[in-house]
Protein: 4-hydroxy-tetrahydrodipicolinate reductase
Organism: Aerophototrophica crusticola
Amino acid sequence: MRVGIVGCGGRMGQMLLREVLATPGATLSGGTERPGSPSLGRDLGTLVGADPLGVAVTDDPAALFRDSDVVIDFTSPAATVAHAGLAAEHGTALVVGTTGLSAADSAVLAQAAAKTPVVVAANFSLGVNLLLGLVEKVAATLGPDWDIEVLEMHHRHKVDAPSGTALALGKAAAAGRGVELDAVKDTVRDGHTGARVPGHIGFATLRGGDVVGDHTVMFATEAERVELTHKAGDRRIFARGAVRAALWAAGKPAGLYGMKDVLGL
Ligand SMILES: NC(=O)C1=CN([C@@H]2O[C@H](COP(=O)(O)OP(=O)(O)OC[C@H]3O[C@@H](n4cnc5c(N)ncnc54)[C@H](OP(=O)(O)O)[C@@H]3O)[C@@H](O)[C@H]2O)C=CC1
Ligand SMILES: O=C(O)C1=N[C@H](C(=O)O)C[C@H](O)C1
């Protein structure tokens, strides 16, 4: 299976290169970075401390999509939208981990999914995907007297907030309660906010140091609190899940898939 990595010089891009090189049945077809990037021209192997592969980082995503069965994208929303167009044009499967996507960006991914398989997940770890199911169940079980708050912490370089995972956890909690997250989410509290609105789902964002990704969903009522937590200790867990999704997606019918489909949850 020929797997390409766009944004291969990034924190996740480098993890993905290593994971593809270590995965039986996967062959690295190439990697891209944006025009002007200092990584351009570097060997994909030496970029991640492995033996040279004789394949250089390019700024030609069209060629990468043409020469790959599946491409993995952990970049930025603008880049992901452009990559979705190339995936549709070349019929290449696409695995998207980019977060901070707008509704319009997600609509572009859905359009591409009409032509080619597209897997999108805010978090590719096994633990978080199990947690999503647990959160939905707990939210459905506990009554409206239990307040739901989502707390997340990430490294100082993260550019979107709340994290994609926090929003997915909030969505799972809202689904458990039979409501739409957009109708009940409180993502900003500052100043004289007034008392908590019953039924709302609150979000709190912490940024600092090199934290890979911590998420806690809190269910709080009078004199009692239930907390469900996931802590990521290494980005490898995301890369492993994304490469698994890539091998699963290539050859599937066109469609929009999630990690639930990949993991059979
Ligand atoms: N779903 C999941 O499991 C996970 C999702 N993520 C998400 O993945 C995304 C990337 O995270 P992270 O790796 O930490 O971020 P980085 O900034 O380290 O990596 C992003 C890379 O993409 C590059 N890039 C930007 N635009 C383009 C383009 N047009 N073509 C090719 N490459 C491009 C960037 O280059 P440059 O720096 O030069 O702009 C950078 O090298 C974020 O949205 C993050 O939230 C992260 C971890 C897990
Ligand atoms: O930017 C990150 O690092 C991460 N982003 C994803 C998110 O926004 O949920 C997943 C993970 O928590 C790491």
The longest helix spans residues 126-141. The chain is about 35% helix and 25% strand. The chain has a mean pLDDT of 98. Residues 70 and 160 are 26 Å apart (CA to CA).
